[in-house]
Design brief:
2 copies of one chain form a homodimer.
Chain A lengths: L1 H22 L13 E8 L6 H4 L1 E7 L1 H9 L7 E11 L4 E14 L10 E7 L12 H11 L12
Antiparallel strand pairs in A: 1-2, 2-3, 3-4, 4-5
């Protein structure tokens, strides 16, 4: 019995660790994305429905591979696109940027993400590099992109 | 007389060309600024005064030298900052970017622009690389930056 207990102690943590690894985001936090190319922006202002929950600025950033994709509409492996959601603050003469709500990340990897059109999706909450959104799940992200797509899962285009 | 006419023909165009060169912007059009680092954004929405003339998005971009400046607040020679003004279009769920109104450019060159705090200023109209704004003049730009300054002529800061 003692030997069995020791074996259990050794096996259980290893199993737990493996489970944690699976639970981690398969999409890595996009380090340095703030210095990537700014693709375009939009805002959800007080005049718009959804302001309470999503009001603010949405900035899109792309790494060099994704910029090739925006030019050719064929996004190469390794393309990463970040959708950066910020709150909005009312200043005297303009709306300014507030705290970060979340970032949504898309990563092109045809093999790893074959089940979702070759793209991995993930939402990281606020400024956290590890806290993931409970919803939308990566599958929900994909389903919506797949429904809205025109010429691919990247819905927007580069604004010169 | 004939010889004098020929001399005039030769001299006048040369003089006109020199005058044009002087009239050109001492601040070069910032080629490639759309791939520089996006510093921050603001918007002037319909709720704000000035919407009619200046409504829309304002995006700030910085070249690598200027990014050093944003980190240290000591902007090295060659720093270039672009203030990109776009119109705003009302979409169903958000405001989206419209045509470009103008870009405002600041260039750090302590010798050439010693009279305006070491910075050259220029506004280029719409998408033109040559059409300059009649107003504000570079001197007017400087006067306002000089009046508003807190720790230098660069009024804003980098949003992480």
């Amino acid at each position: 019995m003692k030997l069995a207990s020791i074996v259990c102690i050794l096996i259980v943590p290893a199993t737990a660790f493996a489970w944690l690894a699976v639970a981690e985001s398969p999409v890595a936090y996009p380090e340095g994305y703030r210095s990537w190319t700014h693709v375009k922006s939009s805002t959800i202002a007080p005049a718009h429905k959804g302001f309470e929950t999503n009001g603010g600025f949405q900035h899109v950033y792309a790494n060099p591979q994704a910029m090739t994709g925006y030019r050719t509409r064929a996004f190469p492996e390794g393309s990463v696109i970040v959708f950066d959601w910020l709150e909005m603050q009312q200043g005297e003469t303009s709306f300014t940027e507030g705290p970060r709500r979340q970032i949504d990340v898309m990563v092109k990897d045809g093999k790893r993400f074959a089940a979702t059109g070759g793209w991995g999706f993930q939402r990281f909450m606020k400024d956290s590099k590890t806290e993931l959104a409970a919803a939308p799940t990566p599958e929900q992200c994909f389903a919506c992109h797949d429904r809205l797509k025109k010429d691919g899962l990247v819905l927007g285009s580069y604004r010169p």
